[in-house]
Design goal:
With about 300 residues, this protein is an all-alpha fold. The protein has a domain at about 95-305: Orthogonal Bundle (MetI-like fold), CATH 1.10.3720. About 75% of the residues lie in helices and about 0% in strands. The chain contains 13 helices and no strands. It has helices at about 1-30, 45-50, 60-70, 85-120, 125-140, 145-155, 170-200, 205-210, 215-245, 250-255, 260-270, 270-300, 300-305. Helix 4 (about 85-120) crosses helix 7 (about 170-200), helix 4 runs antiparallel to helix 9 and helix 5 (about 125-140) crosses helix 7 (about 170-200). The chain is globular. The N and C termini lie close together (about 5 Å).
């Protein structure tokens, strides 16, 4: 197990270096700059600002300067938000994404797994078709439709929940963003769990347990649940990274101060360090959660654990 962790962490170093390199040179190749505006600055002022941020240096030197700061955990200053570092911006926005993302993940796992197992136990029955119909609807409905619809129903019409004006620590402000993020993942988890549970229930060891007189509920909980989690664990690696880093649409609709909004504004304003910093967070999240998914797979399947 430990050898798997060490190998993955070592392979993450060149992967992250490649991500940083591609992001750095692609951003600098885009037309415009962080201090370009409709109102042109005097050449002397423009040169002074660029010299302060080392933008007057050759590109290769800027690149190695950035790598040197990155090696010490410094993501550099933001060009758009003056007197603010990228570390401070990410530290401010990431907890919001973590909170909403983890809440959406918990909701998706609880509800989706329960629906999937229930549908599998009622295979080809009316309840199975109804639940899978709702799952297809959840997958087909995009977030940019679901989020405004929730605002229209629960905020504008019923006045039950606030539509925006994020207040940290207020449970009412977490409900609709969490549901909006969780709905498509509930549908994916339900379909995966249904298919995996059906395959497991047709396995020889399940038929043996059924022949001993175990009830359907005991079969599902004691014998079928753990092996049925294997496809779900593989899916959750990149899915969890997407949930944690947040949805830009959800952040815009509900006014969440997450890092996705900073990423968009930074890209439009050529805030190189901010965009690269958020890209690093996204890349690191994908690597970490894929590693956790592999560890979960090894926990659920002893055959995998014996090979690591």
């Amino acid at each position: 197990m430990w050898s798997l962790i060490v190998r993955r962490l070592l392979s993450a170093i060149p992967t992250m270096l490649l991500v940083v390199t591609i992001a750095f040179f692609l951003l600098h190749a885009a037309p415009g700059g962080p201090f370009d505006s409709e109102r042109r600055l005097l050449p002397a002022i423009q040169h002074s600002i660029e010299a302060e941020y080392h933008l007057d240096e050759p590109l290769w030197r800027q690149y190695f300067r950035y790598l040197g700061g990155l090696a010490h955990g410094d993501l550099g200053p933001s060009y758009q938000y003056r007197n603010t570092s990228v570390n401070e911006i990410i530290a401010q926005g990431l907890p919001v994404d973590l909170g909403v993302g983890l809440a959406a993940l918990g909701l998706a796992l609880l509800v989706g797994a329960a629906l999937g197992v229930t549908a599998a136990l009622q295979h080809d029955g009316a309840l199975d078709h109804v639940l899978m119909g709702f799952a297809v609807l959840g997958i087909s409905a995009p977030v940019f439709v679901v989020a405004p619809l929730l605002v229209l129903i629960f905020s504008v019409t019923l006045h039950w929940l606030p539509a925006g004006d994020w207040v940290a620590g207020s449970p009412a402000h977490w409900i609709m963003p969490t549901i909006s993020l969780a709905l498509p993942y509930i549908a994916y988890v339900a379909r995966l769990m249904r298919a995996s549970t059906l395959e497991t229930l047709n396995s020889p060891f399940i038929r043996t347990a059924r022949a001993k007189g175990l009830s359907a509920g005991a079969l599902a909980l004691r014998h079928a649940l753990r092996p049925s989690l294997l496809p779900l664990i593989s899916f959750l690696g990149p899915a969890v990274a997407g949930l944690i880093t947040g949805s830009i649409v959800v952040e815009e609709v509900f006014g969440l101060p997450g890092i996705g909004r900073y990423f968009i504004t930074g890209a439009f304003n050529r805030d190189y360090t901010l965009v690269i910093g958020v890209t690093i967070v996204y890349g690191a999240a994908i690597i970490v959660f894929n590693l956790l998914a592999d560890l979960g797979y090894a926990w659920a399947d002893p055959r995998v654990r014996s090979r690591t």
